[in-house]
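User: Can you recover a sequence for this backbone? Please restate the input before giving your answer.

Assistant: Of course. Working from this structure:
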């Protein structure tokens, strides 16, 4: 179900960078600079939905010559996953969309972990308390649980009843003097104003009518998302917030906090959800939504970025094979649809095949692929060494035929790396003219400037002249000698892949 929203899409002028609102600044940040942030919580590892949000922020920043910030929202201390913070930045770098400012890289607005910015949140909270925009809540967890159970029993949405909002200053001081634990809540006002979202248009959500006053500072001294993201976006000079649609209904609440602090808010753009092909939500319980899974499975970052933008919006038309530079050039935020994006992961191998061919064509990336394939081969065939020139030639010849490097380690292509063991009985069962066939092929391979078409034609014309062996049986024999398999690439393709020297050696070992 959609949230209770009133939406009318009106874009155009609000997107112009000249209209970007004034905001807080840290040293070295220009007021006119486009600054966006990706702010994941290290309570888990980066998944496809998070990568898509990061990518759209990166594209927007680079499209307008701005900065892309990585900020870790690590205030939920009980749910932090060891290694997740470092892994998130590793994954962004792997994907080719590294942040300009981050915990690892530093920057003018650091620190970039919220757990290291507590003084700032405490000062802001005190400002809200002093102005009456926030108050201390002393309700116990037991009372809050009773409120929740009562609401559910009455088939109502659980919400805080704002009880502590009405405590007098004297009552508050008495509780403080007794050391009573408390949280700080923000006081919601009814009648929120509509705001213009850059994707969903004019939007209004009266949070005070459906929610209790939200906690902004927890009992452990750490802020909640509602306070921390407002404080950090303002103080880091963020000009545009591009985040998931699930935060759309909370934006009115965040705008009330900006208003209470007297701060100008950034511009907001809420990106539609990324869903499975059948329309169901991507679940973190699905092991194949985490980026690490795709790295281990041998997929290229370009293929993954191409796929998740191809199924969404923000582009005039969807195309396969777009590089990151092309995505930056073509991306337009105002073209973002409000409809959820359906992700068809079954198409990923085809996307990867296209991008793998591009990587093979380019010298720099081809060198990376050669090194990766050599490492994979060394793991599989520990007693064999494969030189760079041979591996590079295989990649060039198989370009466009395989989807991943690991495909070249499948049984279909094992003939490229090891010599098959063929018995005399197997050869005799295919042809009594085996040695004659071998001699014909050896002569053909001694020609210069061999190519696939020439070799196919020569094999057909010469082997069809044999009297007692059908052409099809001759090809079966050659395929068996070269690969030890009855099926696979054409004989001419195998000969070109192996090269004349290796092909002749295999024929000689088997036939002569």
């Amino acid at each position: 179900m959609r949230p209770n929203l009133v939406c009318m899409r009106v874009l155009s002028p609000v997107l112009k960078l000249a209209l970007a609102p004034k905001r807080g600044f840290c040293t070295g940040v220009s007021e006119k600079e486009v600054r966006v942030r990706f702010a994941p919580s290290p309570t888990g590892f980066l998944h496809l939905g998070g990568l898509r949000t990061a990518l759209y922020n990166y594209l927007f920043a680079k499209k307008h010559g701005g900065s892309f910030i990585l900020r870790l929202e690590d205030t939920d201390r009980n749910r932090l996953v060891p290694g997740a913070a470092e892994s998130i930045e590793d994954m962004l770098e792997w994907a080719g969309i590294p942040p300009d400012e981050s915990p690892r890289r530093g920057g003018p607005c650091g620190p970039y972990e919220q757990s290291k910015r507590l003084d700032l949140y405490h000062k802001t909270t005190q400002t809200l308390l002093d102005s009456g925009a926030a108050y201390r809540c002393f309700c116990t967890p037991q009372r809050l649980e009773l409120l929740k159970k009562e609401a559910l029993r009455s088939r109502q949405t659980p919400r805080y009843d704002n009880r502590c909002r009405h405590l007098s200053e004297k009552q508050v001081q008495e509780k403080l003097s007794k050391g009573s634990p408390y949280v700080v809540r923000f006081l919601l006002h009814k009648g929120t104003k509509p705001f213009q979202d850059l994707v969903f248009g004019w939007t209004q959500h009266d949070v005070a009518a459906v929610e209790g006053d939200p906690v902004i500072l927890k009992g452990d001294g750490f802020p909640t998302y509602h306070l921390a993201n407002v404080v950090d976006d303002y103080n880091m000079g963020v000009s545009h917030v591009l985040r998931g649609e699930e935060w759309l209904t909370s934006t009115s609440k965040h705008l009330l906090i900006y208003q209470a602090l007297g701060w100008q808010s950034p511009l907001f753009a809420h990106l539609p959800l990324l869903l499975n092909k059948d329309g169901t939500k991507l679940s973190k319980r699905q092991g194949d939504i985490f980026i690490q899974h795709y790295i281990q499975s041998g997929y290229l970052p370009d293929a993954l970025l191409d796929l998740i933008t191809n199924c969404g919006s923000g582009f005039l038309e969807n195309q396969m094979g777009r590089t990151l530079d092309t995505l930056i050039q073509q991306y337009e935020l105002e073209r973002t649809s409000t409809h959820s994006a359906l992700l068809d992961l079954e198409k990923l191998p085809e996307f990867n095949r296209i991008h793998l061919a591009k990587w093979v064509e380019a010298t720099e990336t081809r060198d990376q692929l050669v090194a990766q394939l050599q490492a994979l081969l060394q793991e599989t065939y520990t007693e064999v060494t494969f030189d760079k020139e041979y591996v590079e030639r295989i990649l060039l010849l198989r370009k466009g035929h395989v989807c991943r490097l690991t495909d070249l380690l499948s049984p279909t292509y094992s003939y490229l790396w090891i010599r098959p063991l063929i018995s005399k009985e197997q050869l005799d069962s295919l042809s009594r003219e085996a040695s004659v066939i071998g001699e014909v092929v050896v002569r053909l391979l001694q020609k210069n400037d061999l190519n696939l078409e020439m070799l196919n034609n020569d094999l057909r014309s010469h082997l069809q002249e044999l009297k007692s062996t059908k052409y099809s049986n001759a090809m079966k024999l050659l395929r068996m000698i070269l690969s030890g398999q009855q099926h696979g690439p054409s004989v001419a393709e195998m000969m070109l892949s192996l090269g004349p020297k290796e092909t002749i050696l295999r024929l000689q070992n088997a036939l002569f």
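That completes the design. Confidence is low (pLDDT under 50) at residues 1-20.
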